[in-house]
Prior knowledge:
73% of the residues lie in helices and 6% in strands. The chain is mainly alpha-helical. The chain has a domain at 112-160. A hairpin with a 7-residue loop joins β1 and β2.
Amino acid sequence: MDSNKATLNHFLVDTFNDILRYEEMALEHLTNHRLSISEVHVLEAVFEALPTHQNTPSVVAPKLGITLGSLTTAVKTLEKKGYLIRQRAQDDKRVYYLVPTPIAEFVNQKHLEFHQGMIEEIVADLTLEETQTLAKSLEKVRLYFGRKAEITRKSSVERK
């Protein structure tokens, strides 16, 4: 592996782990150790689905790349902790919506602010051109991993 590729490999592995640790510590502080990073990401997915009224488990689970069973387990935990409510649809009692509570709104807002602050700090010392180049390059990396994750999900489903 040439030195550029080795540097890129170290960057991806180290940065991924560092971001997770950094976000985990920030969220632990924010939620007083009540929520895991996975639980916060479930809340985030619910909030993203709210504007289009797609906040059902069958829509949220695939967005998170998890099974309905895994989401159900997470939702039960978040309900017990007071962050989510399951609400039956009026027109079809088989369907229910995941509805965040006010404390979930607070956590989600702080989580968004955490990400916005992180990005602001990253681009603070970059020129506009450097920011555009970084964004374009990282979008290609994101698309690569998105494709790989989708292939892995499909192959996992086929094996079952």
